[in-house]
Specification:
This protein starts with a helix and ends with a helix. The C terminus is likely disordered. By secondary structure, the protein is an all-alpha fold. Helix 5 packs antiparallel against helix 6 and helix 7 crosses helix 9.
């Protein structure tokens, strides 16, 4: 815990920028959820005590999963795949885009408590932004019309958005930032990719052959697991959602 706060103080400017990005994405999710509720004629509060508790529970699971990474054979060892987006997507499908974004953010906080940052929060920011690039479109599309087909469509769109955004984000920000942070030329990082795949010769081919497949694999696996788990978990999630909706309705009618 002491190291956690020490890292925040040492990187205060970046942390404030991080919080600003979180606020913007939460606002986008809030506006989207309000528009969806108006379109569907739904009423009730965006956040309730029970829903907040569910966000905390899913975020705790996601935070632990984020600390468990598996290497992939087509990318350098500083890239890995984890299942932390699975609880986030489940929560977003159950409770909406705002819940999804907040779960993504709390996940990062919980991960930092278990495993402090080694990248001055740059890696955590990347994980949050790339994760939200999948969670937001997937949950927005699903909540416009809650059907199996829109859940599938949302997951496909979310996976594609994460793949495109993650690839672009790595090329223009993440990889150059890591190169500066660790005092090594960008070419050295590219050479690590070349050692795995000779077709990698520059940053464009690096993200095309390493980053894009990684995000595509992660998005696809998370989507498949979500469909396998959502139905068994739906009785618990539905009870929680119905209770919060009913409670909100009673409060309004009183």
């Amino acid at each position: 815990m002491k190291l956690f706060f020490s890292n925040i103080v040492e990187n205060l400017t970046f942390v404030l920028e991080f919080v600003g990005i979180v606020a913007v994405l939460v606002l986008v999710a809030l506006l989207a959820e309000k528009l969806i509720a108006k379109r569907n004629g739904e009423e009730g509060r965006i956040l309730t005590a029970r829903k907040t508790a569910m966000i905390g529970m899913f975020a705790a699971i996601a935070g632990v999963l984020m600390t468990i990474e598996f290497p992939v054979p087509f990318a350098p060892p500083f890239y890995g795949i984890d299942a932390s987006e699975l609880p986030v997507l489940l929560c977003g499908f159950a409770f909406g885009p705002v819940a999804g974004v907040l779960t993504e953010f709390v996940k990062i906080i919980i991960k930092l408590l278990f495993k402090p940052t080694t990248t001055a929060f740059v890696g955590e920011l990347a994980n949050f932004c790339v994760g939200c690039s999948m969670i937001l479109p997937a949950t927005i599309l699903y909540h416009i019309r809650k059907k199996k087909t829109t859940a599938i469509a949302g997951s496909v769109v979310g996976t594609l958005c994460m793949t495109v955004f993650g690839t672009f984000f790595n090329a223009v920000y993440l990889l150059p930032t890591f190169a500066v942070m660790y005092g090594m030329p960008l070419d050295a990082l590219i050479e690590m990719g070349t050692a795995i795949n000779p077709a990698i010769t520059d940053i464009v081919t690096f993200v095309a052959f390493c980053v894009a497949p990684l995000n595509l694999l992660k998005g696809t696996s998370v989507s498949v697991l979500t469909f396998l788990l959502y139905k068994p978990l739906s009785p618990i999630l539905k009870v929680s959602y119905d209770n919060t909706t009913a409670k909100s309705g009673r409060t309004k009618n009183a």
